[in-house]
Design brief:
- The complex is a heterodimer of chains A (629) and B (160).
- Chain A contains 17 helices and 20 strands.
- With 629 residues, chain A is α/β, with parallel strands linked by helices.
- The longest helix of chain A is centred in the last third of the chain and has 26 residues.
- Chain A is globular and about 65 Å long.
- Chain B is mainly beta and 160 residues long.
- In chain B, a hairpin with a 6-residue loop joins strand 2 and strand 3.
- The longest helix of chain B has 5 residues.
- Classes of the chains: A alpha/beta (629), B mainly beta (160).
- At the A-B interface, helix 1, helix 2, helix 3, helix 4 and helix 10 of A face strand 5, strand 6, strand 7 and strand 8 of B.
Chain lengths: 629, 160
């Protein structure tokens, strides 16, 4: 094949994937490494890439320390209860103590943040959320990253990390191909900050046909954060902790501003409150530590997101669907009505289109809600991702190995979806994690940890061959049949994705089985996954665009395999409403008050699973109880 | 609502190809104009619609759940710093215009060049602080929050 090999050498900091996490990394790296070579490799165009490409109408993680609103430990306590205890509190506290400075930088760069005119503080949507006019959130942040980076390579699909051949388990850069020219790109770097995204489209989506792209998380979030790191042998944590979202039906429009700011609420298809009646039985399943509606009523303690899903799922199954969002009261106020629409236009235009198409005017009609297919990611109300070191001054010994946000591979750092155990980071927290990773990566280099890295031509050529194999498979076998997409020698990326989604849905607890699985199903699923893995060696791509889809599929596959292993390992139902282990339908703190950690051996593909201890912040954490928003 | 391109408005400039996060806006080789090659990987994010200098790109709701006959149009203007929307319902009963700011500064003018700010001191490097901290976190003279400053410990086990 005639594609050129383009080598970018002597990079200090390579940022792979420049969404909010990656842009934060590139921006901050310049401060700590003013003479260092900083390079971004991004699958799309950094001006509109990642989960925030479309914009956001709120920043969901802001402490307001400067206005005396919250302390970092308050946020830790919130994220902890929302995730049923399963979080890395050192990483969360660290993110929360820095996150406000990210937001204040954004405002300085021109991001319009709404103000509370009376208090002088930012306009609160909820305790943690502030409201913004964020249509250009991503391009504004990308401008800052661009200014810091020496070079930005747009349209490079990074497929693999490069590994050092002089020292085991040390990163040496990354490789990929340009989705326009097809050229092979090699990035030799002392450190890599993985800012790639979580995974949409690994579970069968509710939408069908043309609408299959109408997913909650962006369809271009291909699980590459996990695919890249798992393949290289990094340890992962909490990969079983997929998230299910209760959202406006079909359009998946966000509900946060509706609940928190517009004060809308839900009821069943018959106009009744339904949530509370499911709570007594649910309390038996999870224990009073995790669900205590009376305490939640009196204090700021939230009812965990998954448990609220559980009530919706059960009410619908009991035949009293659909669940409605009661908007007809709030929308009588023209100001609130306008906010309701702006909220969609700022971050999920598709929902506005859907309501326009179906003549749903929320002023006169209460729209339907539904629970989505599951997603695997690490920055919303879930914490999948790599097992990373925390900061020196916060982390217990099991959580600390020298450099903040460094994975178990030396020189490989994470930010955003890539880091496990840090839910509720959202956009601002992901950016903050990128900054923290960048400072640590600069220090790692300055400490001399990246000396003597060696990458052989053999490694570079081996990856090149692997990357283009789907094109070669197509070239060799496509003419064996007259025409069409049916071929006995290969499957195309769409066919592979369909198979993956069906398998995840049926065996790993998708919406099609009401989020239910068990050990038997998971073991069958794993067997079928192994065979899909074999078939993915035969995935074929007719052009460079399809080659992109082929590699996204491979990253989704590695993510999914990890989800299977983790789900099988954790023998309890920790998050009812996200998924259920039918064979162990209870939360089990005696045996499973731990974080799950996995490693896939890069040579054999074998998984090993372990339990890691769970630490919590204790002390005067109850003292700060700010007034209700 | 996957995107589509009006034949008479598109001049094949490729702005949409350049910006699409999903890599699905491509130029048709025969017609030399843009089109959506993979509607089922479209997130209806409107990045291409906003980027098109000729308003040649529009969207039609996903065929699997959105009836025909609606419209959501947009004009984004970096110079004015605004975004203007118009939403029209299928039944014609609602026709809304909505305007929002997209930036508070002349575009791109306020991003700092960190290669040119004073280099961090050794003390700063050895601390947990990031660029512009702690002043960008809080208004008082306090430092960064730590376990000690907030009276906290970190302990293993079920602690709640």
């Amino acid at each position: 094949m005639s594609y050129s090999t383009i080598i970018e050498d002597n990079i200090d900091i390579l940022v792979v994937g420049a969404g909010l996490g990656g842009t934060g990394a590139a921006f901050e790296a310049r401060y700590w490494g003013q003479d260092k070579k900083i390079v971004i490799a991004e699958k799309a165009n950094i001006m509109r890439s990642g989960a925030v490409a479309q914009g956001l109408y709120a920043i969901n993680c802001y402490m307001g320390t400067r206005f005396g609103e919250n302390n970092p430990e308050d946020h830790v306590r919130y994220a902890r209860i929302d995730l049923m205890g399963m979080v890395r509190e050192d990483l969360l506290f660290d993110m929360a103590r820095h996150v406000d400075s990210a937001v204040h930088n954004f405002e300085e760069w021109g991001l319009p943040i709404m103000r509370n005119e009376k208090k002088g503080s930012y306009l609160r949507e909820g305790r943690w959320q502030i409201m913004i006019h964020g249509e250009s959130y991503k391009p504004i942040v990308a401008e800052a990253a661009k200014k810091s980076a020496d070079k930005v390579f747009n349209r490079i699909c990074v497929t693999h990390l490069l590994m050092d051949e002089s020292k085991e388990n040390r990163v040496a850069g990354a490789v990929g191909f340009n989705v326009r020219t097809g050229n092979y790109h090699v990035f030799k770097s002392k450190t890599v900050i993985c800012g790639a995204g979580g995974a949409s489209n690994i579970f069968k989506p509710r939408s069908v046909g043309e609408g299959a792209g109408r997913v909650w998380y962006a369809p271009w979030s291909s699980g590459s954060a996990y695919g890249l790191m798992i393949e290289a042998g990094a340890k992962m944590t909490q990969m079983e902790n997929r998230i299910v979202l209760a959202r406006f039906k079909d359009g998946y429009g966000p509900v946060g501003a509706y609940f928190l700011h517009l004060k809308t609420y839900t009821q069943n298809g018959y106009g009744e409150e339904y949530e509370s009646k499911w709570f007594p039985a649910l309390q038996q399943m999870v224990g009073k530590e995790y669900l205590d509606p009376e305490v939640s009523h009196r204090t700021h303690r939230p009812i965990p997101t998954c448990l609220r899903n559980h009530a919706i799922i059960n009410e619908v199954n009991a035949g009293r669907g659909p669940i409605h969002m009661v908007t007809m009261e709030a929308f009588q106020d023209p100001h609130l009505e306008e906010i309701g629409w702006h909220n969609f236009l700022g971050m999920t235009v598709g929902q506005a289109v859907l309501w326009a198409a179906t003549d749903v005017d929320p002023k006169y009609e209460n729209p339907e809600l539904t629970t989505s297919e599951p997603y695997v990611m690490g920055s919303h109300a879930t914490g999948c991702g790599a097992w990373c070191s925390g900061p020196e001054d916060l982390s217990p010994k099991e959580y600390y190995w020298g450099y903040n946000r460094m994975t178990t591979i030396e020189g490989l750092f994470g930010a955003g979806d890539a880091v496990g155990g840090t839910p509720h980071a959202f956009s601002s927290g992901s950016f903050t994690e990128g900054r923290l990773a960048a400072k640590a990566a600069c220090r790692y280099i300055d400490d001399g940890k990246a000396e003597g890295i060696r990458v052989s031509d053999a490694q570079i050529n081996r990856r090149r061959e692997q990357i283009y194999k789907p094109l070669e498979t197509y070239r060799v076998f496509s003419n064996e049949v007259v025409a069409g997409s049916v071929n006995p020698n290969f499957i195309n990326p769409r066919q592979g994705l369909d198979r993956l989604q069906k398998m995840m849905d049926e065996y790993c607890g998708g919406f099609g089985v009401n989020y239910m699985t068990n050990d038997k199903l998971l073991n069958i699923g794993l067997k079928k996954m192994a065979i899909l893995g074999e078939d993915l060696e035969k995935v074929a791509a007719s052009d460079i665009h399809e080659l992109l889809r082929a590699w996204e599929l491979k990253h989704r596959f590695l993510t999914s395999e990890s989800v299977f292993h983790h789900t099988l390992f954790r023998k309890e139902t920790r998050w009812p409403g996200y998924y259920y282990r039918g064979d162990v339908m209870k939360l089990d703190d005696k045996n499973w008050h731990v974080l799950t950690v996995s490693r896939r051996d890069p040579k054999t593909g074998e998984y090993t699973m372990e339990k890691a201890p769970l630490y919590h912040l204790v002390g005067d954490v109850e003292k700060a109880a700010p007034e209700a928003h | 609502m996957p995107t589509f391109v009006y034949m008479t408005r598109c001049d094949g400039c490729g702005e949409c190809v350049d910006i699409c996060p999903s890599d699905i806006m491509h130029i048709d080789k025969k017609l030399r104009r843009a089109y959506n090659i993979e509607p089922n990987m479209c997130w209806e994010c409107y990045s291409c619609v906003k980027a098109c200098p000729h308003q040649a790109i529009d969207v039609r709701g996903y065929a699997d759940f959105a009836p025909l006959g609606h419209s959501v149009r947009v004009i984004r203007d970096e110079e004015k710093g605004t975004i203007a929307w118009r939403i029209k319902f299928r039944n014609g009963k609602k026709d809304m215009e909505l305007l929002a700011p997209i930036t508070t500064k002349p575009w791109g003018s306020a991003t700092p060049d960190l290669a040119k700010v004073p280099a961090p001191s050794k003390e700063m490097r050895d601390s947990q602080l990031l660029f512009n901290e702690p002043k960008y976190i809080r208004m008082d003279d306090g430092g960064l929050h730590t376990l000690q400053s907030n009276g906290l410990e970190i302990k293993e086990g079920v602690q709640y």
